[in-house]
Amino acid sequence: MASEFNYHGKCYNRDLSWLLFNRRVIELANETTTPFLDRFRFLAIAANNLDEFYSVRVPSLQSQMEVTNDKIEKKSGLHYSKILKQLHKRNEKNFKIQYSYFKSLSEQLPVEGLGKITTYKELDDHQREKADQVFDQRILPFLISTTYENNYNLDYLKNKRMALAVKMKLKGKHAIRIVPVPLEIRRTIRLRVEDQTIYLRVEDLIRNNLNTLFDDGKVEDILTFRISRDLDASLDVDKDDNNHDTVKNLRHYLADRERGRITLLAVEDLPDVSHKFLLEFLKKFRIDEQALYRIPGPLDLTFLFPLLKSWEKEKPQLVYPDFQAQEWPDQRSMLQYLQEHDLLLQYPDDSFDQFLTFLREAIADPKTVAIKQTIYRVANNSKVIDLLKEAAQKGIEVTVMIELRARFDEANNLKVTGELEDAGCNIIFGKKYMKVHSKTCLVLTKDGADPEGYVQIGTGNYNESTAKGFVDLSLFSSRKDYVSDLASFFNYLEQPGANPPKYKVLAASPHRIEDMVIQNIQKVKEYYQRTGRGHVFLKVNSLTDVDVIAAIYDAASVGVPFRLIVRGACCLELGVCGPKENIVVSSIVGQFLEHSRIYAFYDEGTALWISSADLMTRNMDNRVELAAPVLDPQMHQVLEHIIAVYDQDDVDGFFMNKGGKYFKYESPKGHSAQQIFLKELAVQPQPKNQLQLAWDRLLNWWQQRKA
Known about the structure:
This protein is α/β, with parallel strands linked by helices. It has 20 helices and 29 strands. The strands form five sheets. Strands 16, 20, 21, 22, 23, 25, 26, 27, 28 and 29 form a ten-stranded mixed sheet that branches. Strands 12, 13, 14, 15, 17, 18, 19 and 24 form an eight-stranded mixed sheet that branches.
């Protein structure tokens, strides 16, 4: 159900907006409240984010431009070629900011007693001698090169691969040699010389020792480069009983995907880089000049991740302090508790181990007849997978919906598929044209027409590693409506030709989550027009769906207040709804990755929902998603408190202005949502009854409001 509001040309482009999000990540490296080593971490995170962007989103834009013959994107009113040009310009600015922060932070490393990141040319003679020894012993044996005089092709270089392009003069003629940086070697070499610790990059050491590698000609020019490739190939899963063919097709897909066209060519912009050779390189290897970025520093700042692991062991005071997440009390049975109460957890303040407790108790319960769960991303050596295998081996019927198309987790999900099948689990692969992105687990103590048991419905993946750094919500219950709806949901997934069921309380994509959100917005609008009261709160990772945005515009035009927290891409534009518009948009970027999705609608009643779905067209129309209303009055109050804390955040939040740019308050009141939750956790004695915790949180919130 779409609003009548005409959104055409009144929205920001999704990808240009996302680059502003990545800039917000970069800006955390310049925040005085960010611990010193975590400032480096945010620079590395931004670099990692950009890799995926250029492997997925940029190819999609390029394809749209080619398929539509560069027509206008209706949402933004921009030609695709204009979007790509603006994207390049905006990303160049991001690089400039990112590397200026890297340079200033690197200069502080010796002051903190952590050594020095340096270059080969800055070494003295003694240091160079030691570095050259490392090259001869540890690097040279792994080096290979390919010589090109014609038929130039880089297909053998996979995505995110770094290499050196060397222009050689060989017996009176020219050739180009490509020397990949070995994957077997860590990006930085640690040298200890005269009580001084020095970090030297491998590619820099190779560059300055090429004469050792090549003795058959003269080195004339050198480029250090790194490529990102188009990984946006799609894979449809055939919904039949032949899982073997599905797995085989995925293996072929993964191999072919690594040969996509080059979408980003990052070149280290050193003083001796020849512009003439750079243009020759682009031409001979058929790389679009728009893919080129000349980087004012080391390529691929993700090389910082392993360094940070060692540095934080030496200087733990230079990172965010550890905290003790809330555990489930050992003396209480979680399943017995759920027979009378619902439970709403917020990771990482609440430990993900509580979900493992839920599974363990379900496996140990003699009443359990079946466990059904969706899997999108899991950790390596996942405890969740181990427990599901244990359940199957014990004789419990275990059905696992594994999404093989979870981007960049395909290989791990293939591995998990084999493990679960070997343990006797029933594996299903979702719908042919739609990824199953839902996060849910159903434990049945009674199957059939009137099922009974327990449910867990969440906003995040079953990954015990990322749950320590991602903010997500997880709802547990034994309510019969939840159980019945999830039983219908899994029946729908298991039957290839089944139509989506009608649910008693849940909402599911495709389409119905979008309908639910729009209908609730319209309901708030009607209530507001009658009473002058009511508002909407939405917290998502991305807001790009034009029908939802149109519904927001329509309600905002009559004055309905909206509080939107959108971490990433936000296509909604401020200032288009007329004089009554009252929309506040912020993006919270801080110590943890904000990943929870909350939909809250305030009219004559209060409808609070959590969901696996962002408000994006792909999630609304082209994925299988779940949204669950929070029905328990106590958990309703817990979620109200969480919403209130986020609503007040003025520290971690970057706020959108009418020009689409983001700013921070110069004089915030000091309300950091993430830190408030950690402070509340710190004052809770361990372990504590969840109901007591809920009431304590509500009381803290009420006292803050009164103060």
